[in-house]
Design goal:
Helix 3 packs parallel to helix 6 and helix 5 crosses helix 6. It is globular and about 55 Å long. The chain has nine helices and no strands. It starts with a helix and ends with a helix. The protein is mostly helical and 225 residues long.
Length: 225
Amino acid sequence: MWPYALATIRQAYRSPVSYVLAACGAFAGWFAASAAILALTEVGEQNDPLLYSTSHLAGVLLTLWLIGRALDEDRHSGFAQAADATAAGLAGRILGRWAGATLAGAMLAIIVGFLTAGLTGALEMPDGISLLSTSIQATGIVAAWAVLVGNVWRGGGTMLAVFLVWVLGHLPWGRAPFLEGLPGRILRSWLPGPREAAGALEGLGYTSAAVAGLLLATLALSRPS
């Protein structure tokens, strides 16, 4: 598992895609905060959602790119086929790819969050624990969806499908008219989407259960390369 995780992380920091996403994410956050200053509404209430959503989006995009590229390379790699026959096997490869992409995406989200806050006076520096928790949750659930879809289907379009599910996760599930009540809250915990700074640690258990379920489904449906 860990060799695949480390290989995925190395791929992240060696690729210019990571640095481009960091720059674009920080610029998008700065631009959005600057535009919000001109708005007639209260800016202070928008600060946390703006910072967290911008940083999470950068981490999610990196996570999707890493898993899409890694799974595509594994399907055409003789080394992956041989590794699937070892003790760690298919489960180790999939979990390693998931863990590496999650950690790399979460780290980028944290960097973008602090860069965004530092570039504009409209945003205060985020709380490190909250940003870490929400970043891991946001990228971890996206990575779980990505390995599930990427192992069932084929092609780069699977990553686009996961991104569309990420957009769907932005809807206010659990509140009218979006499946009000407990069913909506359960659906919200399973869908990839933004995690709020308020109550981040409380929501960690729900997200962890969803991630575990998606990874188990992935392992059950997957076949060796």
